[in-house]
Amino acid sequence: MSNEFHIVVCGSIVPDPLQKLEPVQGPGGYALKNEMMLPAVLDPWAGHALYEAANLAKSHPGSKVWLVCLGPKAKLQQVMMNVAQKVPFEIVVADGNASGFTDAFETASVLSRSIEAIPGLDRDRLLLFGGWQSASRGSGAVMQMVGEMLGVTEQFQGVDKLTVGDDGSLEIMERIEGGCYQTSVVDGAPAVLGWATGELPEPPNNPQVGMQNMQKIMPALAQAKPGDVSGSSLSFEAVQVPAQRRETRIVKDTPVDEIAREIVDWLSA
Amino acid sequence: MSDQSVEMPEVPRSEMQTDIVCVGFGPAVGGFLTTLTRGLMNEDGTPVAESSVMPGMPPQVICYERADDPGFGVSGVVTKGRAIRLSFPDLDLSQIPMAHEVTSEKVLYLMDPVGASRRNAAFRLADKTLARWSEDHAFSLPFIPPFLKKEPGMIFSMGQFSSWVAGNVMGTGMAQIWPGTPVAGPLVEDGAVKGVRLVDQGVDKDGNPDAGYMPGMDMKAALTVIGDGPVGAVGQALDRELGLPDGNHHREWAVGMKVVVDLPEGCEWEPGTVLHTIGYPEPEIFGFLYVYPGNVASMGIFVPSWFDNPARTAYRYLQHWMMHPYIWKRIQGGTMRSWGAKSLQESGKQGEPHLVGDGFARIGEGSGSTNILTGSGVDEAWATGVQLGESVLELLKAGKPFTRANLEATYVHRRRHSWVDREADVAAKARNGFCRNALLGILGMGMTGLTNGLLNLPGDNRMPWERFSSLEEYYDGWIPAGEIEEIRAKCKAEGKSLHDALMDRVGWPEIPFDGQLLVSHQDALLMGGKVQAMPGYADHVRFGNPTLCAACREQVCVEACSGQAITTNPEKGAPLFDREKCVHCGACLWNCSRADPLDNTRSNVRFSAGSGGLHSAEN
Hints:
The complex is a heterodimer of chains A (269) and B (619).
Chain A: E1 6-10, E2 13-15, E3 23-26, E4 29-32, E5 40-42, H1 44-59, E6 64-71, H2 73-83, E7 90-96, H3 104-116, E8 126-131, H4 142-149, E9 155-164, E10 170-176, E11 180-186, E12 191-195, H5 207-222, E13 225-227, H6 256-268
Parallel strand pairs in A: 1-6, 1-8, 6-7, 7-13, 8-12, 9-12
Antiparallel strand pairs in A: 2-5, 3-4, 9-10, 10-11
Chain B: E1 15-23, H1 27-39, E2 61-64, E3 76-79, H2 82-87, E4 100-101, E5 104-110, H3 121-130, E6 138-140, E7 154-157, H4 158-172, E8 176-178, E9 183-189, E10 192-198, E11 201-203, E12 209-214, E13 218-226, H5 233-242, E14 253-262, E15 273-278, E16 286-292, E17 296-304, H6 315-322, H7 325-331, E18 335-345, E19 356-357, E20 360-362, H8 378-398, H9 404-416, H10 419-427, H11 438-450, H12 464-467, H13 471-474, H14 481-494, H15 498-505, H16 521-527, E21 530-531, E22 541-543, H17 546-551, H18 556-560, E23 566-567, E24 576-577, H19 587-590, E25 595-596, E26 599-603, E27 605-607, E28 613-614
Parallel strand pairs in B: 1-2, 1-13, 2-8, 5-15, 13-20
Antiparallel strand pairs in B: 3-7, 4-7, 5-6, 9-10, 10-13, 11-12, 14-17, 14-18, 15-16, 16-17, 19-20, 21-28, 22-27, 23-24, 25-26
Helix pairs in contact in B: 1-4, 1-8, 8-9
């Protein structure tokens, strides 16, 4: 079997992590205050998966990369103008809720249906990539369920490295407890890989890549199908933002050694 | 093999072609693209003209925006919105977050409650005279001159408005807006603009090829639309290449610094409230405050180039302005949501560059469209974009090329016969009085406004670096020269800001940081939504002649830097620049007390396009 892969990356958008996030109770349950106003970025975990996917496709000619997103179309469009400049991919959009208050199962259902509808997708060559976690849906369960729904049982989570052998086998390094890695070998696709950070930096913006991507991204955004995730019985009893970790104290005439010591003590606490 | 001996591979510079390339996405390009994209297709679905680079397709339109998001623009806006409403006749402000009709408007004269403001006798007399009619040390003018009045009008956040416009434009599929793509400069051949060159990537801070070197792509286009604002790299380069029209200049500037605040519960201000302030913290500094829906306000100050303090800061003055009793009484208990700053080109019509040439047109603030009498620029910028959009459609339909003559006959003709130009003519000399002092400036604006530009106070427009006195001269009578030298030496040794020490010394009270509304400058930077500068780009702030900097006693750039990105060099060379802290306001470009030895129309600071910067759509 040749080493051409059909790599599907599941990933959506999250509010820019530098923004102030505030949960509010709305008519449809919890949401983020001014969510549609907040600048959005590609979920960093999904970003790692996308860049790894593009790198794998580049080194295995004939491979293809799709990015499957569940999120509000207008926001996705803005974010994609940036992401599209990074690496070549095609996009599949389910126009729906990308907030952190959706049910992982509902999300997985929408994603799996969107993947099943990709024309020309060869399941025997399928590598299903995504974030091991998400900056908004931190359940860590979506990728596993998408894999299950698509019948892909070879699953790996917390992946930092994938090496493809000449025979098409996949050697995968997963993070495990204690800062160690578990190395597994699987015969080949199909497989689910939930990526941790991988090993690649964020690629620079390449306007030529952007122009090529956009020829397919804009029509795909225009043809986005609704992604309904409202069918869940999930409800949130209470929601709160994590305690702020940044504490500012104005000090004067404090020796730098003392400041350094205090920071070390704080980190060690 | 040592790292030094590694040879960089030869990487070819790529080139692409499009029909129209725009630089910068602000209100001007927003107006241009809104107008253009609506008119590129006929009702029967055929294009009004064929792309020269993609036959059979409509003209291909690309816009490059330096910042990471089209909603980067930093401004709270109050505007009559005439041009914007013409583009959107059914505009429903509730569809744009943070937008609202103006419901009430006041001009407040703020008195000095702390005794540290450098007020001349006239201002001190005004303080005394108006005290009996004042409330919380503020006197509300009983009458707002028509030229200042914005009611009926609208308030909005520039970031939110830009996001909304960008979404609409991209939704048409007729234009691409590429954020995160700084442009290095125009491609000029024999006086004609042939497109733009993007900045190099994979370079070190000095611009030398480094790991992952990728030379900036050349994007060739039949028309280059320059809407990159007052400090944009392309606009600057063209001004140097072509010069300015006779008699025009870029001598007047201001930096606007603002915060967005969650107002405290029970705040009396209703959505749509607009305040303009004069008189405090210094007579030269103006303030503004707009109340958005949801108990949120945008507020800030303008620090102009004619405020001659060489150790000028916007941030600390902003905090003293916020703490003025009239404002503080109403915002105390609130929380800062975001913060930002931007330079404003305050020369108005007198700063108009060559608007068109073969292959290029200029729109928006960088084209001198800001009205310096009414203090409005967004709607004017939008209008110039619309005028160019209509002109380009006219030329496309007629199959005419984008030559100087054709752009003169269409775009410039439209602009010259529009309210934008008529009102800019009236305003052209409105602020000349400020070149002499704040009182004459205010009187001059009144004279210009009330006589419709017939009478103007004369003024001596000088480059900022020609205005600066020394610190010793500025603080003459306040701080002895010997003591200034001691303070200067102490600050330099301790790496502390000189303006803080000097302001403390002349009686400005210490800022009582509360972690919510009054926060340190660096905390404001974080709360503003600072985006990390992408690696692999060269520093976009450089110093032309480091020897000049080393000998500079004022180092205005250090004191005026909105993000504390420029700092004193302990090794006595040119100041240090930290790209991670820069918010791209461009204040350093004109806050410099030294002219370029080879070109006295520019300072010694080089400000080019860089990636990153503030990223808070509330700005």
